[in-house]
Design a protein that fits this description.
Blueprint lengths: L1 E5 L3 H14 L4 E6 L2 H11 L3 E5 L7 H8 L7 E6 L5 H6 L4 E4 L4 H12 L8 H13 L7 E6 L2 E6 L3 E7 L2 E6 L3 E4 L3 H7 L5 E5 L2 E4 L3 E6 L5 E5 L6 E3 L11
Helix pairs in contact: 2-3
Amino acid sequence: MRIIIADDEPLLRHHLGKLLEDISPDLQIVASVGDGAQALEQVTSLQPDVVFLDIRMPGLDGLQVASELNKLDLQTNIVFVTAYDDHAIEAFEEGAIDYLVKPIDESRLLKTIRRLENAQHRSMPNEDLITLIRQNQTQHLEPLTWIKVAKGEDIHIIHVDEVMLFKAEDKYVTVVTKDAEYIIRTPLRLLCRQLCGNTFWQIHRSVIVRISAISRVSKDELGKMFVETTMGRARLPVSRSAQSLFKQM
């Protein structure tokens, strides 16, 4: 099986390549690229059996690359690999054979390879996969207690009680405690479903803050609302839809 990996993070490309090599020596990586334009060029030129596409890449994103590839008469299967599950439905609408969420688990990747090997016998049409994804996205999630976070090359495990706020920044979410900052890949939308609404509030599309960490709320001369925290960080914006959280009782 000839494979192209497209992801804008070199370490993740290396990690995925190593996992594929460990699964089988018959999996040949013919190209590894860092943006959508290169992915489209290499897939068109090399016509691999499968391309692993990151969704969020500079220039053309993975969904746009898939859309362009679908216009061509190629036999290349598409697998999306991303830190977010928001685009799962769009991925299958673009003809993806599978959808992997980072960090990639080797056993889950093995299932993807088995699915690719039997692609001509796909047991579930995309319409049914889309329905299944919608059901999974609305199902109840267990409350968040322990969080695996990254700092440099190290992985730490912290209790949710230590967290003061979560802030989405590009592809990552920064987890802020009283003493340090860490990185995770879980999107805020998913975190909201796992955090107690009596403990945390989402005050902006990019910010979830612990209620007890809020010291005061203020407005600027334009009427925009901001939260100041007990940690003395820069003011955090409050979206218009979240301002009702701070109405006087």
